[in-house]
Amino acid sequence: MLSNLTAQPQDKILALVGAYQADPRQDKIDLGVGVYKDSTGATPIMRAVKSAEELLWQAQKTKSYVGLAGDPAFSTAMFELVLDGSVAADRLSAVATPGGTGAVRQALELIKIASPNAKVWLSNPTWPNHPSIVNYLGMPLAEYRYFDTETGSVDFEGMLADIKAIPAGDIVLLHGCCHNPTGANLTSEQEDQIITTLAESGAVPFVDIAYQGFGDGLEKDARFTRKIASQLPECLIAASCSKNFGIYRERTGILMAVSESASLQAITQGNMAFLNRQNFSFPPDHGARLVTMILEDQTLRGLWSTELEQTRINMLNLRQQLADELRQRTNSDRFDFLATHRGMFSRLGVSVDTVEILRSDFGIYMVGDSRINIAGLNSHTVPILAHAVSQTIK
Predict the structure, then answer these.
(1) Is 353 considered catalytic here?
(2) Is there a catalytic annotation at residue 208?
(3) Which residues are CB-contacts of 204 (< 8 A; sequence separation ≥ 6)?
(4) Residue 222: which domain range?
């Protein structure tokens, strides 16, 4: 049987990790892997998470299963964090999942059950796991425009035109704040236009949000998601706790569904629990338990909020420093857009050939489309990157 298998395409980001690790240069810089790093290059454990783990170790009496949907307290805490009462509780359903990718997978499976012929529309660009899972599940797939490579901003006219043409019942995967890999976000007014268009067309929004708190703060970063949930009849939301709680390896995610009416909530919840049972039975609990403890405890939440704000400010400062260094070294405003982006990622907007030269000649690793992890930089490496870019694009 196994002799019938054929090799799968290599994941480009994992291949980049392997190449970086094999590079013997001591001054190499990794800007490909999407994890937060501090000024020393480490991915630290938040103090709030450490404190919660100590409390959990002392208090936890069992490692028994918590239920197909996970701990209800985790769902309640995440409803409050992401939606903050913008939707009536009796319209909400949720299941804990293994990370944000697990939530995306469960959402797509739910769509496949509820509407087998629905086409899933993804932004161009989006994260590689989105089209990979859609294609693996055999679902119809299409793209809408999102990014203008010339300006480094959202191609809003193209995006709006494409979404207006999406028929009722199709699924539109939208990015929460800081979530699109380009780093470019919609303005509040543009968000409103997208929501109006979806309301008129009858297309169903599916929000992927993993960086709440990394852009303009916890509340502002949830704005688009809350408006979608409160103004449209139904939507799906995949949320991850990996980034803003720094618990990547705990694989802590949640899928939320907003039903059109309270009468549909129980059926929706039952189907989501059914899918958990088919795919992994009971979801992991450790990370979800830590998140719940932090969000429910005033002291822990205050500590976490402070740490998250420090992380956000650090990335904003790195963005501004990089934009300033590039302006000075290139004597142009070509890269000024970097300071206007938000979150961990941005596209530099240089060619694949330039990306390869940056790797081979300077030991700077980034994805082929020139996406960089801003959090992979520090005040020392920003000038190194700016120098390398300026030399390469001459």
Answers:
(1) no
(2) yes
(3) 118, 169, 170, 171, 172, 198, 234, 235, 236
(4) 65-296
